[in-house]
Amino acid sequence: MMELVKAFLVGGVICALAQILLDKTKLMPGRVMVLLVVSGTVLGCLGIYEPFAKWAGAGAGVPLLGFGNTLWKGVEKAIGEEGFLGIFKGGLTASSAGICAALVFGYLGALVFKPKMKK
Questions:
Q1: 3-state helix, strand, coil in the chain (%, to 5)
Q2: Rounded to whole angstroms, what are the CA distances from 65 to 23, 27, 31, 62, 99?
Q3: For the chain, what is the largest distance between any 2 Cα atoms, rounded to a whole number of angstroms?
Q4: pTM of this prediction?
Q5: How far apart are CA 68 and CA 61, in angstroms?
Q6: What is the predicted pLDDT for the residue at 58?
Q7: Domain boundary assignment for the chain
Q8: SS3 assignment, position 25
Q9: What whole-number distance in Å separates Cα of residue 36 and Cα of residue 49?
């Protein structure tokens, strides 16, 4: 039960920090999202993210920080297997299931809710 509470709190803190960035700065949502992905990638590259993710559980894996770390792990693995070409292939290969799910569920959401253009 404590693992669930810890995951909820860690994920909530990450999301709250992102919301504070949105509210207190002039950063647009897209830039905050990119900042989170890049931060996860850099933390993964420095070897900081894995111990944090093991401690935090799912709370660290679900937000965009986890996506950045997944990209890094894919690139790191692909570089070891394929060399220079792995820089370009690894991240997308490692995260392809998540990207596909986002596209499919986004499309289904658009079908169900009939989005309209802002005027």
A1: 85, 0, 15
A2: 19, 17, 14, 8, 15
A3: 50
A4: 0.79
A5: 10
A6: 86
A7: 2-113
A8: coil
A9: 13
